[in-house]
Design brief:
By secondary structure, the chain is of the alpha/beta class. The chain is built from 13 helices and eight strands. It has helices at 8-13, 20-30, 37-50, 62-73, 95-104, 126-138, 150-154, 158-172, 184-187, 190-203, 221-238, 253-266, 284-297; strands spanning 51-54, 87-90, 112-116, 143-147, 177-181, 207-209, 243-245, 279-281. It has an eight-stranded parallel β-sheet with strand order 7-6-5-4-3-2-1-8. Helix 3 (37-50) runs antiparallel to helix 13, helix 8 (158-172) crosses helix 10 and helix 11 (221-238) runs parallel beside helix 12.
Length: 309
Amino acid sequence: MTVNSSNLRNFLQGLSPVDQVGVDSRAAMLATRSIKTTSKRWAIDTAISMVDLTTLEGADTPGKVRALCSKAVRPDPSDPTVPHVGAICVYNDMVATARTHLDSISGKDIPVAAVSTAFPSGRASRAVKVLDTQDALDAGAGEIDMVIDRGAFLSGKYEDIFEEIQVIKELCGDRAHLKVIFETGELVTYDNVKKASFLAMHAGADFIKTSTGKISPAATPSVVLVMLEAVRDFYAMTGRRIGVKPAGGIRNTKDAIKQLVLVNETAGPEWLNPSLFRIGASALLNDLLMQRMKMNDGYYPSPNYVTLD
C-alpha cells in the first residue's frame, strides 16, 4: 500500500494498538541481559561509533565546537584504535565551524547534523522551517534533525505533519539524511509513538528520533522498543530500512549497552551499525572511554583523562 496524505489517516487508524504492559515487560526483561567480557569491548566500540556527539547550548562558542570536533575524530588521543563517533550535532550557526574544522583534521567521514525546523519546539511557520533547514544545508550540514509540531500531532493534524516532512525531505535531497524528532515525552502514549513513527517513515524520514534532549522523559527503553518494532515492521512492508536515534538520558556505558541489546533483539543485527542506529549524547562518550580504558588497564582512570564537554 502506498501511503500519502489523502489516505494517511485511515492507515494510522488501522494500526494495531500497542500492548503497553507487554512492551514495558519486554523492555525490562531485555535490560537484564548481560554481555560477556569478550563481547563488551565490541559493544563499547560499536556504541562509540554510534554517538552523535552533541552540544546544543546557548553558550556554545566556536572554540567549544572545534574542541568537540577534535574529540569526535580522536576520542582518545592516546589510543588510535578507538573509532570516531557517528556525527557532530550542533545548532545552525555552528555548522560551518564544525564542517570546516572536521575537514581540516581528517574528519571528512564525520557528518555534521543540524537541529532544524524551529528546534526544540517546532512552533513556527512552514516558511520559517524551510529557511531554517536551507540555512543548515548551505552551511554544510550532512544530516538534518527536524522536529515535528507536537501540538499539531496531538490535535490530529497528521496530514500537515506528513506534508511538512515531505517538504523538508525534498530540500535535503541527496545532500543530507533526514532525522525526524518526535519528542516522545510529549506524545504521552505508545500508540502515539507508533503512529508518529509510521507517519514519518512513509513521509520520507531516513531516521526516526525519540527526543530533543530538552524534555523528560526522553529515550526510555520502552519507547525505543516501540520505535524499533516500527522500523522492523516497516522494512517487512516496504523493503526499506529506516534508522532509529534515541536521545536524552543515555549517560553511561550500561545504558548504551542496553540500547544495543534492544536493537539486536527487536530490529535485528542489521541495525547494529551507525548507518541505522545512533545515540544522541554528550556525557556518554566519556563513560564509554573510561570503561574502555578499564578493560585495557584493569582499573578506572581518573576523570581528568577525558575532556569535559
